[in-house]
Design a protein that fits this description.
With 211 residues, the chain is of the alpha/beta class. It contains 6 helices and 11 strands.
Length: 211
């Protein structure tokens, strides 16, 4: 293995609420060896989310996490359970992939600068929900995606990788979202590889990448 700076990680958990196309890209890259991370487990707060089916098909533990009574965050007993699952599966890095809840202090403290998220906009523009629609409604000419470390804010953590796409005349929310999603998968793999190989270091808001 070539020498790398900083820490290295090996076992990645993916947490998501939806269809899991980013999770699939990660599962495929992990299985082929293109990504130097093993997927430890896939967790979803939605019992019948397709992301869990993708994990089962890949032979990876697929775990439903009941987050009640909370509707928009991962907190309390559900957070404790999440920590237990992550520990039980020997996880040292976490990727949020379409997880529709805010993570809270307990998870962030347990995985400091080891939780990544992908957001379908060029942050800090258009945080929050349906960012592709926000970009279109705003009249932006360029849209894209951002992979960042997770902090307590809504899509506010230090940025690791961004990829831009044009907004075209005649775009609908669907066409723009799908153009962004094509870039999400390579962006997430690139960011995960950098973090896994210890090539990132955080200085304030900045993620410094060392080759
Ligand atoms: C992606 O657009 C991601 O940027 C956002 O949620 C969506 C998840 O898509 N956070 P998928 O479940 O990975 O297909």
């Amino acid at each position: 293995m070539r020498a790398v700076m900083g820490k290295q990680y090996s076992r990645l958990a993916i947490i998501g609420s939806g269809s899991g196309s980013n999770a699939q890209a990660i599962l495929d890259a992990s299985a082929s060896g293109a990504l130097p991370l093993e997927v430890s487990c896939v967790i979803s707060d939605v019992a019948d989310a397709y992301i869990l089916e993708r994990a089962r098909k890949a032979g990876i533990p697929a775990i439903h996490l009941d987050c009640a009574p909370f509707k928009t965050k991962l907190d309390g007993a559900a957070q404790d359970r999440a920590l237990e699952i992550l520990r039980d599966h020997g996880t040292d890095l976490v990727a949020l992939a379409g997880f529709m809840r805010m993570v809270k202090q307990g998870l962030i403290d347990a995985f400091p600068h080891r939780i990544l998220n992908i957001h379908p906009a060029l942050l800090p523009a258009f945080p929050g929900l349906q960012s592709w629609k926000q970009a279109l409604d705003y009249g932006a000419k360029v849209a894209g995606c951002t992979v960042h470390f997770v902090d307590l804010g809504m899509d506010t953590g230090p940025i690791i990788v961004q990829k831009a796409v044009p907004v075209l005349e005649g775009d609908t929310p669907e066409t723009l979202h799908s153009r962004i999603q094509e870039q999400e998968h390579p962006a997430y793999l690139e960011a995960l590889r950098l973090v896994a190989e210890g090539q990132t270091r955080i200085e304030g808001r900045k993620v410094i990448i060392s080759p």
